[in-house]
User: Fold this.
Amino acid sequence: SSKQSVTVIGLGPMGQAMVHALLGKGHQVTVWNRTPSRADALVARGAVLAKSAEDALSANELVVLSLTDYDAMYAVLEPASHALAGRVLVNLSSDTPKKTRAGARWVSEHGGVHLTGGVNASPSGIGQPGSSTFYSGPRQVFDAHRSTLEVLTGTDYRGEDPGLAALLYQMGMVMFWTSTLSYWQVIALADANGLTATDVLPHATETMTGMPDFLSFYAERIDAGEHPGDVDRLAMGMASVEHVLHTNADAGVDTTLPAAVAALFRRGMDAGHAADSFSSLVELMKTAKA
Ligand code: NDP
Assistant:
């Protein structure tokens, strides 16, 4: 076939979905995974299971990594590192910008090229329209492989810095993990009051749907360095956050999350921001707590 052949290393839910998408578009795919049985269904569909990580690297120029983190990359590729020369490693494993920069350096020291990816999709979104991945690294290499990478998800190339895709991805995850935890909090509170997740779903959805306007309203004021208390005052926010904390405490559910929020508001009050907007908390959050 005229389609570029690809190696995929790492067959968790993500890697498996990626291999299915590539096979579905007619690409030849070589796979490797620490636990070989995870390749069974893929081999049944036509993927080739390499005998070793080294063989997997040697099979194709384009090598997609889908591992838990960058430590897993070293665990898998260090014993096979001489086979990295001439490879394009598209690392779609999550990790910190710092680790991705070090990883990119390590790959290039072994004669390979590293592209960082941050996948903004769940396994079910792989190969589906509407999903997207941040990429960063050498532009020419990205351009050369773009059409194959677009079999996995849409591509959003952000720049040369190998840490950039990871940074943008982790920013998304800051919001994803904390906002989904806020949803679990609501469900725990609902349960303590005889309501189900399905009961509260419309209200939770409405709250989330209101967020974009809210974000853009504050972005302009924050970038202007302004935190006027004309719309909201931190003192009001402090009282409100305590109502949230006490509602959860009274219901006998876990209060870790609302207590952490209240602690941040308390710091803002102690720093003298009672009459400012609660966006003034951003200024405190710009430095690690002493
Ligand atoms: P998993 O953590 O479930 O699987 C990743 C793979 O890493 C498995 O193949 C596993 O091998 C391998 N692995 C982990 N540690 C080692 C090690 N020390 N040595 C060798 N192999 C190792 O992840 P997912 O498939 O769910 O996701 C892959 C990446 O994509 C992650 O970085 C994740 O954060 C990111 N991601 C995941 C999303 C999701 O919804 N699942 C969404 C967006 C991004 P083995 O099978 O042998 O255990």
